């Protein structure tokens, strides 16, 4: 264990997500969608492309996303660590969703199946 | 003045709850009504998404919410509180989806507000922390109504006898939503019937407590998927730790009607939510009827004019009820008393939804009675002018608040 998630840059976090999803692709099987995370306080975006049980992270907004999630970087990390539930984040206005709400809810379910801490 | 335009956050909450109502609730609505319960696997799925029926969901995160409530500084937190407005906006969409399923969503339900309002910090932790998406779905419940005391709350007969280390409860409660499945029930009882309201105490009785049982579920006209239980307490021992607020709370308020006040305060929070659900049901019936009229009615002549006029009147009624409801929620958010407004919106919306569903059925004609959504909503609607205080009681409350400033006691 070298670096905790709290210290990650957005690039590092994105790469880690891609690695973790591809190492254990079961929860993302059958889910074909492009998710875009707008990290509000860093003024940066990255996209998570899910197709055929594979995950690919791309920075910026190269394609049209099915669903855009807007959140601060600190809250995004909390979400990944399971310290903040997507539902609570949404209800308290920390997370904003644009586009396909059904896909956003699916992602919430997918994230829950990863114990992020074991990968750090 | 207040704004009638939803803030971006309010609009988001409305959109996502509507999505949930349309895509998760509606598909199981008719089946749940038919089998008289909400399927367990559905409840587990929804629970794992963290969706609960609790006003706490709409405030800060649960933890912060509990801390701030404990220190009593909720109103002074940074920014404007809007939990009550978000709750009524969400409740309208849930009512539009299916009110019976909405009432069955996991969470503390009606039992939440009294614990939030007067529970000790330890009680809040113990009873409100059990609702967790990583564990099986759980419920709380609120038990006030008895065979001899519904609207006449002061007349409750369930007794609480002080013994060493706690109280012994004896009595019966009826029409308790989620009473059987609940992990705990807030139960109102009297330590001395002669004391009237000031003898009332609220206890949190946990599932499995010896002497506490649920012998029967009611079979109802509407809201059939929602569990309505009869509860019996036979020499049921409840430890001191489960007296809501602790002895100190009642000692400090010897002069006031304490337990009764706890029971009534709950309603100021929950009546607007019930009113909003009624608005949601009415809107569902209206939209469905509007579709049918567009599709099946001749587009000119007397029948069409009559139908269009009726629909316009329905829309006007729904909007009136919605605005009264928003006002009651808004007052609660800015920390003003809202007992009168909560009673008004509940009374108005409760009657409105019954009228609207009846008119929609008329427009459908006999076809509406056979396998149509409108038939279900009509059955679901009636309870809304009865539970959480009948309309007669709401009008009494309104009258008391209106005339008290002039020294007239109603």
Describe the structure.
The complex is a heterodimer of chains A (120) and B (410). Chain A is of the alpha+beta class and 120 residues long. Chain A has a single domain (5-110), classed as Nonspecific Lipid-transfer Protein, Chain A (2-Layer Sandwich). Chain A has helices spanning 10-23, 73-81, 86-91, 101-112; strands at residues 33-39, 44-51, 54-59, 67-71, 96-99. Chain A starts with 9 loop residues before the first helix and ends in an 8-residue tail after the last helix. In chain A, 31% of the residues are buried. Chain B has three domains: 8-117, Butyryl-Coa Dehydrogenase, subunit A, domain 1 (Orthogonal Bundle), CATH 1.10.540; 140-256, Butyryl-CoA Dehydrogenase, subunit A, domain 2 (Beta Barrel), CATH 2.40.110; 260-406, Butyryl-CoA Dehydrogenase, subunit A, domain 3. In chain B, the strands form two sheets. Chain B has a four-stranded antiparallel β-sheet, with no helix packed on it. In chain B, a hairpin with a 2-residue loop joins strand 2 and strand 3. The longest helix of chain B has 39 residues, at 258-296. Chains A and B meet through helix 3 and helix 4 of A and helix 1 of B.
């Amino acid at each position: 264990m070298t670096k905790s998630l709290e210290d990650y840059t957005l690039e590092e976090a994105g790469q880690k997500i891609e690695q973790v999803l591809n190492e254990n692709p079961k929860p993302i099987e059958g889910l074909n969608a492009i998710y875009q995370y707008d990290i509000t306080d860093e003024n940066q975006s990255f996209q998570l492309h899910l197709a055929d049980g594979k995950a690919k992270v791309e920075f910026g907004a190269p394609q049209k996303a099915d669903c855009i999630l807007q959140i601060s970087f600190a809250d995004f990390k909390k979400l990944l660590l399971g310290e903040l539930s997507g539902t609570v984040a949404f209800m308290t206005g920390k997370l904003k969703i644009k586009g396909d709400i059904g896909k956003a809810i699916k992602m919430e379910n997918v994230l829950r199946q990863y114990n992020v801490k074991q990968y750090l | 003045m207040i704004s009638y335009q939803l803030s971006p956050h309010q609009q988001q909450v409305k959109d996502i709850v509507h999505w949930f109502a349309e895509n998760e609730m509606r598909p199981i609505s008719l089946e749940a009504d038919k089998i008289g319960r909400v399927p367990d696997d559905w409840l587990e799925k929804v629970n794992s998404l963290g969706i609960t029926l609790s006003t706490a969901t709409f405030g800060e995160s649960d933890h912060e919410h509990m801390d701030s409530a404990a220190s009593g500084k909720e109103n002074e937190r940074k920014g404007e509180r809007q939990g009550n407005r978000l709750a009524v906006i969400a409740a309208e969409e849930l009512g539009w989806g299916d009110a019976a399923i909405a009432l069955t969503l996991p969470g503390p339900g009606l039992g939440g507000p009294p614990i939030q309002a007067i529970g000790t910090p330890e009680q809040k932790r113990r009873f409100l922390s059990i609702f967790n998406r990583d564990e099986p779905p759980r419920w709380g419940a609120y038990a006030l109504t008895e065979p001899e005391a519904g609207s006449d709350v002061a007349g409750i007969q369930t007794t609480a006898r002080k013994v060493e280390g706690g109280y012994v409860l004896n009595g019966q409660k009826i029409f308790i939503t989620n009473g059987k499945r609940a992990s705990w029930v807030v139960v109102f009882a009297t330590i001395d019937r002669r004391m009237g309201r000031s003898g009332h105490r609220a206890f949190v009785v946990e599932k499995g407590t010896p002497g506490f049982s649920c012998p029967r579920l009611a079979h109802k006209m509407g809201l059939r998927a929602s569990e309505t239980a009869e509860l019996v307490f036979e020499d049921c021992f409840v430890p001191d730790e489960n007296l809501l607020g602790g002895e100190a709370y009642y000692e400090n308020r010897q002069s006031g009607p304490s337990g009764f006040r706890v029971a009534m305060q709950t309603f100021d929070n929950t009546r607007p939510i019930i009113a909003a659900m009624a608005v949601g049901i009415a809107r569902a019936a209206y939209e469905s009827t509007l579709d049918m009229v567009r599709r099946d009615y001749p587009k000119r002549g007397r029948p069409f004019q009559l139908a269009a006029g009726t629909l316009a009147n329905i829309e006007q009624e729904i909007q009136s009820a919605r605005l009264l409801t928003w006002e009651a929620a808004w007052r609660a958010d800015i920390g003003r008393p809202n007992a009168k407004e909560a009673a008004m919106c509940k009374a108005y919306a409760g009657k409105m939804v019954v009228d609207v569903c009846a008119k929609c059925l008329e427009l459908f004609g006999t076809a509406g009675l056979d396998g149509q959504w409108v038939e279900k909503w009509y059955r679901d609607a009636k309870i809304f002018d009865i539970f959480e205080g009948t309309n007669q009681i709401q009008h009494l409350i309104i009258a008391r608040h209106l005339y008290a400033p002039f020294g007239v006691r109603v």
